[in-house]
Amino acid sequence: MTLIDRDRAVVWHPFTQAATALPPLPVVSASGSWLHLADGTRVFDAISSWWTCLIGHSHPQLVAAIASQAARLDHVIFAGCTHPSAVELAEQLVARAPAGLTRVFYSDDGSTAVEVALKMAVQFHAQSGQPQRTRFLALEAGYHGDTFGAMSVGDPADFAGPFAPLLWPVSRIPVPVVNGDPLRADVDMTAALAALDLLLAKKGDSIAALIVEPLVQGAGGMRMHTPAFLQAVSARVRAHGGLVIADEVMTGFGRTGALFASTHGGLQPDLLCLAKGLTGGTLPLSATLATDAIFAAFLGPDARRALLHGHSFTANPIACAVALASLRVGEDESLLERAAALHAFYASFLPQLQALDGVRAVRWLGGIGVVELHGGGYHDAQKSQQVRDACLRDGVLIRPLGPVIYTMPPLGSRLADVERAWQVIATALECHT
C-alpha cells in the first residue's frame, strides 16, 4: 500500500472535507523552504506549513538544539518545577516584547495561548473588584483558534457554526480594511470608531478586554488594517477600563516586518499571545505574556486566587530550547531584513496583478503577500482552488482562504524562489480567473 492509501484508511485531516478533498501530499522530508515528496519531487512551501516555519525546515541549529536538550532533559512537570530553558526563554521574550509585559505563561498552541489570555482577563477583573467585566470585544472576521473560548471571540460564521449555541456572546466592531501597504494607507475610520463608541457607551462597564490580531487578520482572509486604527480602538477600550489582548500567534516573530506587529502602531498590550513561529515551526509551544499588574492580581494566600490552568507539556524543555535557538538564528540571519526585502518585492510585483480581470484587490505587509479574487465565499471559491491546483502542478504549495490567495514563505527563503512562486501564481491567475 502507498502512503496515501494507508493515510486514507486511518487518518482524519484538519480543515478537510474528506469526501471531496484531493489526496494529501506525501511529504517524506523537508529542507529550507522545500518539501520533498515520496516520488522525489520538490514543492516550495509558500505558506510556511500553516505559518509556522519561520526560518526554514530542518535548520541545522534548530535540529542541534533539539538533540542537545533531549539528551539532557526531555520533560519535567512545570507545576512546582522549573528548568533553565524555560527561564531563559521567558527572559528573552520579556526583553523583546512590547514594554510592560513582564510575565510569561507557557502552554501548547495558539488556541490555548488565547484561552489563557481570556481567562486571565476575566479573573483579573473579578479579583480587582469588577466581577461584572466578562464581555469581550473583537474585530469582525477575526480568528483566534478552535477551542471554545477562542471560537467565541473569533467570528464563528465559517469555522464554528455548529457550535454557535455553546459560544458566549461577544461584541464585534467593524474593521476599515485597507489594500496595498497598510503602513502607508490612509483610511476613513469614522464609521468603525462611531460603532465602537456607541458600543462602549452601552456596555463599557462590562468589557473585560478587546482582542485583536494586530494589522493582519489571518484566517479571516489576510485582511489588513492600519496602525492608526489599532491605536484608536485600543485607546478607547482602555479609557473604559478594558484590557487589550494582542493575538500575535501568526503575526509574531517578524512576519509583518517587525518582531511583533503591535510595535508598528506603538501598541503596548496588556496580554500578548504567541505560538507558531515561536519554535521556528519545529515543536508545539505557546506563550501568553502579561503585565506585572495582571500577575499581581492573582497573588494571595488562597490557592483559588491563582490561575488554575495548565497542560501536561507546559514549558517542555525541548520546545523551549529550540525556541531559544530560533530567536538566535532569527537575529544572526537578519530575518527582519529578509521580511523587508519581501515587502519591497510585493510592493513592486503585486500591483501589476491588480489589472487582471478576476482580481479584486492586492495587499502586502512584511513577508505576507495577498491577492483577493472577486466573488466566492470561504467554502465555495472555485477559482482560487483552480489556481491552487495549477500552482501545485508547478511545484508551489499555497492554501487559499476562500477567494484570497497569499504567500507567507519562511523568512529564510531565497528571494528568487519567492519571485518564481509569484510568477507561477500569476500564470495560474491569468488562466483561471
Question: What brief labels describe this structure?
Answer:
Aspartate Aminotransferase, domain 2, 2 domains, Aspartate Aminotransferase, domain 1, four-stranded mixed sheet
Q: What is the N-to-C succession of helices and strands?
A: HEEEHHHEHEHHEHEEEHEEEHHHEEHEEH
Rg, Å, rounded: 21 Å
CATH homology-level superfamily of the largest domain: Type I PLP-dependent aspartate aminotransferase-like (Major domain)
Average pLDDT over all residues: 96
Number of strands: 16
CATH topology of the largest domain: Aspartate Aminotransferase, domain 2
Distance, first to last CA: 38 Å
CATH class of the largest domain: Alpha Beta
